[in-house]
Write a structure and sequence with these properties.
42% of the residues lie in helices and 8% in strands. By secondary structure, the chain is mostly helical. It has one domain. It is globular and about 35 Å long. The two termini are 18 Å apart.
């Protein structure tokens, strides 16, 4: 974990899946990541497990 006065960076947990889906399911976000394709919930969950 990395913390500053105003921010805390921590590893993602299973409870973050809905938040991650808001990014990985958004074409405007994903156009800059990997092949530019949105991820399914299953793909996002698998990445989270890794």
């Amino acid at each position: 974990m990395l913390a500053t006065e105003r921010l805390v960076f921590r590893p993602y947990t299973a409870e973050d899946l809905d938040f991650l889906m808001s990014m990985t399911g958004d074409p405007e976000v994903m156009r800059y990541i990997g092949q530019g394709n949105v991820w399914t919930r299953e793909q996002t969950a698998e990445r989270l497990r890794m």
